[in-house]
Design brief:
The protein is an alpha/beta fold and 392 residues long. The protein has 3 domains: 5-205, Rossmann fold (3-Layer(aba) Sandwich); 217-311, Adenine nucleotide alpha hydrolases-like domains (SH3 type barrels, Roll), CATH 2.30.30; 313-390, Translation factors (Elongation Factor Tu (Ef-tu), domain 3, Beta Barrel). It contains 8 helices and 18 strands. Helix 1 (14-25) packs across helix 6 and helix 3 (75-91) packs antiparallel against helix 4 (98-117). The longest helix has 20 residues, at 98-117. The model has no long low-confidence stretch (mean pLDDT 91).
Length: 392
């Protein structure tokens, strides 16, 4: 029997509910903690309060399992570390990933510290990923922890944890990572947990379903600007790139003279590379996609069709300060073959890391669509996530 204490981040969803149940079955002393991360009245999200329903469901699960439960208010830290960062990044014309940041800054930092202060040996979440540990030849022996993809390929959430470090992994358990989603729901139904048939949450981490443009417009001013369509036959696309990592990572640089004005928008900072919805421009055979934004001149450049050459780049750059190794023992100054993705649910693509003193190039074997500055690139060896970085 285990006698170690685990504090589970009960979110009010089926995954964390089953995580708590499984840990209880394994003999751990389980405590449920619900994180309240939002009550900023200056930013209106919607008329409903999804966190109230989620908190109630989490409490009902804790009662069913017979485990202690409490709510902890992390809204101040969430606003400072996640929301303010989001607004600042969008204002700069970049595209942050709040879910990755929420895991790094809230769940596995602030929440972890609270759990440890309550005498926890571990924290646990309902993420679909796995962890194992290696013992290296060192005195004293130290474990090296590996972050592995979830067993369910359709639910693998390792990407969202791409900014975790060894200290955080050492104190974390992922009880459902080896299960399929269907198995998790079956367990919840068998145990008559109130969350068994609850739909998966959508939207910002711990905030709920949000219309991102409406959310951003609470803090970022609207400002009319031009939507400029660039033809796929533009001469810039025909130029042969310098076949070096630096050359392949170069972005297309647009000016108003590169296309025709086809509409207006309410602010370039509300749009991101690859975006299709929200342009409100008709009259084209295929949909328009955002190729680039210029927040200084408040212009958006668009191209017709998902195969438009302006959407594709072979490489990206990550500043040294933004390079993060989950496995620092694998860090190298030599090129490294990896599999990588630039967004959640994107299939892994073969690529090569090219480290330099100033940062790192990630060069893909095949061009990638809609590489957006501010997003996270994550790289893997087999099914182990070993590092990540913020795209420059």
């Amino acid at each position: 029997m285990q006698n170690k204490r685990v504090i589970v981040g009960l979110s009010g969803g089926v995954d964390s509910s089953v995580a708590a149940y499984l840990l209880q079955q394994q003999g751990y002393e389980v405590i449920g903690l619900f994180m309240k991360n939002w009550h900023d009245d200056s930013v209106t999200i919607s008329d409903d309060c999804p966190w109230l329903e989620d908190s109630n469901d989490a409490m009902l699960v804790a009662e069913k399992l017979g485990i202690p439960f409490q709510t902890v208010d992390l809204s101040e830290q969430y606003k400072e570390r996640i929301v303010d960062y989001m607004f600042a990044e969008y204002q700069r014309g970049r595209t942050p990933n709040p879910d990755v940041l929420c895991n790094r800054e809230i769940k596995f930092d602030v929440f972890l510290d609270i759990a440890l202060s309550l005498g926890a040996d571990y924290v646990a979440t309902g993420h679909y990923c796995q962890k194992d540990s290696l013992v290296v030849d060192a005195e004293p022996a130290e474990a090296t922890h590996r972050l592995l993809a979830g067993a369910d390929p359709n639910k693998d959430q390792s990407y969202f944890l791409c900014q975790l470090n060894q200290a955080q992994l050492a104190k974390t358990l992922f009880p459902i990572g080896g299960l399929q989603k269907s198995e998790v729901r079956n367990i919840a139904a068998e145990q008559e947990l109130v969350t068994a048939e609850k739909r998966d949450s959508q939207g910002l981490c711990f905030v709920g379903k949000v219309s991102l443009p409406d959310f951003l417009q609470q803090k970022l001013a609207t400002k009319k600007g031009a939507i400029i369509q660039v033809a796929d036959t533009h001469p810039m696309y025909a130029k042969t790139p310098d076949n070096t990592p630096a050359g392949l990572a170069e972005k297309f640089v647009y000016t108003p003279e590169d296309g025709n004005v086809v509409g207006t928008h309410n602010g370039a900072h509300f749009f991101t590379v690859g975006q299709r919805k929200g342009l409100a421009v008709g009259g084209t055979k295929e949909p328009l996609f955002v190729l680039a934004t210029d927040v200084q001149k408040n212009s958006i450049y668009v191209g017709e069709g998902k195969d438009h050459p302006g959407l594709y780049r072979t490489a990206l750059w990550i500043d040294q300060a933004d390079v993060h190794w989950i496995r620092p023992d694998l860090e190298t100054d030599q090129p490294m073959k990896v599999a990588a993705r630039i967004r959640y649910r994107q299939p892994l693509a073969t690529a090569t890391l090219h480290p330099t003193a100033a940062g790192m190039y990630l060069v893909f074997d095949a061009p990638q669509s809609a590489i957006a500055a501010g997003q996270f690139a994550a790289w893997y060896l087999d099914n182990e996530l070993i590092g990540s970085g913020v795209i420059g």
